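Ticket #4471: structure export looks truncated?
Reporter: QA, pipeline team
Priority: medium

Steps to reproduce: submit the single chain below to the structure queue and open the exported record.
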Amino acid sequence: YNAHPSGIECIEIIEHLPTNLGNAVKYVWRCGLKTSETPLRDLQSARWYTEREYRRAAIFELDDWLHSKTDIVWRAFARQVAGDGVGLLDRYLKALLGGSFHLMLRVLDEAIEELEEEVRR
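Actual output as written to the record:
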């Protein structure tokens, strides 16, 4: 997934994140790009991984769930990719940068709702 205008590849961000969040970012990133999966399926998978990481952080009381020695790396890449914050990937990465599971889930829920509405039409 290297078609982003920033020139940054998905792997450059996700390799520095916890596995669940890396998978969630990957599914949001590829949403609508991979023909073997539907955008709705990608978003549902991203939501599942985000929710799983939220529960993991809560169970183990991981207050610093996003801080590691590679924190500066993924944050720098994510800020470049997030751009103006308008697109789905932009909004999800901004919520991730802000450390808000609730906002990350809301971004995904809104996108899923929009896709489900399109399918109903």
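Status: closed, not a bug. The export was complete when the record was re-opened. Leaving a note from the reviewer for reference: The chain is about 65% helix and 0% strand.
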